[in-house]
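Reminder to self: tokens first, then the designed residues, so the page reads top to bottom the way the pipeline ran.
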């Protein structure tokens, strides 16, 4: 049988087999001699040992589509980051930092702004303005009213890494999302709550057919790693169009004259907020090098 590793603890792998539930497995046999180590997110072949106690052996790992390093997880299709449009106001630096981290790892991110009921029209416009020309898909939700159809559609059939600071409605939203899976009601939100104060391993949660959510732990410490400051600009999609058009080769788009990025900024094609965060992150990467 084929299932997906949703959690790994102390030598055991918990494999979700759709239609059958969760099996506690060990990695055994031929498979052990291979160099590849099973990861959360791996699709695996399970040899069932006992149906009642739900135990089995993992005998093979199916080919990985992708592999995330932070957190270590396989076959994530996309990421969704949740912020409140208001109360608390979005932390754009944290948001851009997350976007850069996902760009670095080649994962597409969807931005979800929750608490739309609390937002003035102005606040919605502001958000749209900041991310204009970035190409990121932006969703607006009201988790309290259950206004989440768009989110459901975006998640369907995929494995999505979910992230966001606390207080933005992440639990409320995920609670709503899984309301159809009656057996599991409360599961994701409880895990998210629990996760607030403890460091945990990554864990996938089954939502519906072929649909999984990865609750991404440690969101508060999003420090950039292994990025050359010169490469940072390539992780801002709306800069793409202007790279190579500056007067100087290797322009950092900060103090150089005749800079196409700064020109785009002055024409409003790149937003102030994004550009400022680019500069802040650039400085941060520059200082990292010193230590
Ligand atoms: P989490 O910390 O991100 O998991 O956030 P919670 O789901 O615990 O929500 C934090 C607070 O915001 C709670 O009081 C929720 O009732 C409230 N909340 C969540 N979603 C919404 C929303 O769409 N609109 C409003 N007005 N409040 C919301
Ligand atoms: Zn430039």
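Designed residues (291 positions):
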């Amino acid at each position: 049988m084929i299932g997906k590793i949703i959690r790994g603890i102390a030598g055991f792998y918990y494999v979700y087999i759709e239609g059958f539930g969760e099996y506690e497995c060990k990695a055994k046999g031929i498979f052990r001699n291979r160099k590849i180590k099973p990861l959360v997110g791996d699709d695996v072949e399970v040899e069932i040992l006992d149906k009642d106690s739900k135990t089995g052996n993992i005998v093979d790992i199916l080919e990985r589509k992708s592999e995330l390093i932070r957190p270590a997880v396989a076959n994530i299709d996309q990421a969704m980051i949740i912020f409140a449009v208001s109360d608390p106001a979005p932390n754009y630096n944290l948001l851009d930092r997350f976007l850069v981290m996902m760009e670095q790892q080649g994962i597409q991110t969807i931005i979800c702004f929750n608490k739309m009921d609390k937002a003035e029209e102005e606040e919605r416009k502001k958000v749209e303005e900041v991310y204009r020309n970035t190409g990121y898909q932006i969703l607006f939700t009201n988790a309290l009213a259950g206004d989440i159809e768009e989110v459901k559609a975006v998640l369907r059939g995929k494995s999505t890494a979910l992230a966001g600071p606390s207080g933005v409605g992440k639990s409320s939203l995920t609670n709503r999302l899984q309301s159809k899976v009656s057996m599991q009601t409360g599961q994701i939100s409880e895990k998210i709550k629990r996760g607030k104060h403890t460091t945990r391993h990554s864990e996938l949660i089954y939502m519906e057919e072929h649909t999984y959510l990865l609750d991404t732990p440690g969101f508060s410490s999003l420090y950039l790693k292994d990025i050359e400051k010169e490469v940072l600009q390539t992780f801002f999609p709306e800069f793409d169009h202007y790279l190579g058009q500056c007067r100087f080769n290797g322009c950092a788009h900060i103090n150089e004259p005749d800079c196409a990025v700064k020109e785009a900024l002055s024409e409003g094609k790149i937003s102030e907020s994004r550009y400022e965060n680019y500069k802040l992150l650039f400085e941060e990467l520059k200082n990292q090098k010193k230590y």
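Residues 181-186, 195-199 have pLDDT under 50 and may be disordered.
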